From TrEMBL:
Source species, domain of life: Bacteria
Domain Hemerythrin-like: 5-119
Protein name, UniProt field: Hemerythrin
Domain Rho termination factor-like N-terminal: 156-182
Entry's Gene Ontology BP terms: DNA-templated transcription termination
InterPro entries on file: Hemerythrin-like, Rho-like_N
Length: 184
């Protein structure tokens, strides 16, 4: 049986919370967990922004401000996610960025579950919520099926490549200069 979109969104929230807990308690698995978090969070956010938020804004125009705020919170979390993906999972900075992301996502989840989802339950009939659940699930599946974007090389990786290629002055170059010097 297909679940309604509200149940699916809340299940995603619980899933992300579990990943956050694993990131804290399983340092040896952090690279894989960050990749899982990135895939699931991005798919969830894109599906909400493409399908769910527009449906709510149409059904309850007074909720447009909340919808816009939800999108802004997704973008804030995505910026933190990008920092988390670049952070060395064995360094203290990783936990600092993780704590910032957990705080931002918890805030978003609390607002969404206390304001947006109840507004959706009031404004959209049950059969439409089920249909929206199918569309949301499909949009997430399509996002998850996309190949991951290649991770940018770190400055350290670029320095090592420049050294191997014998590029003069590589040690004093910025990351952008290294990319240019390496011709990539």
């Amino acid at each position: 049986m297909t679940q309604n979109v509200i149940d699916l969104i809340m299940a995603d929230h619980r899933d992300v919370e579990m990943i956050f807990e694993k990131l804290k308690s399983q340092p040896e698995n952090r690279p894989a967990l960050v990749a899982e978090l990135a895939a699931k969070f991005t798919a969830h956010a894109r599906a909400e922004e493409a399908e769910v938020y527009p449906a709510l804004a149409k059904a309850a125009p007074r909720e447009r401000g909340e919808v816009h705020h939800g999108v802004e919170e997704h973008h804030e979390a995505e910026e933190l996610l990008a920092q988390l993906m670049e952070a060395d999972p064995d360094r203290p900075e990783f936990l600092t960025v993780l704590a910032q992301m957990v705080k931002a996502v918890q805030h978003h989840v609390e607002e969404e579950e206390s304001e947006i989802l109840p507004a959706m339950a009031k404004a959209i009939p049950g059969d439409r919520l089920v249909k929206l659940g199918r569309v949301f699930s499909q949009a997430k599946a399509e996002e998850l099926a996309k190949p991951p974007k290649p991770k940018g090389r770190t400055k350290q990786e670029l320095l090592e490549q420049a050294k191997e290629k014998g590029i003069d002055g590589y040690s004093s170059m910025t990351k952008d200069e290294l990319v240019t010097a390496l011709g990539k």
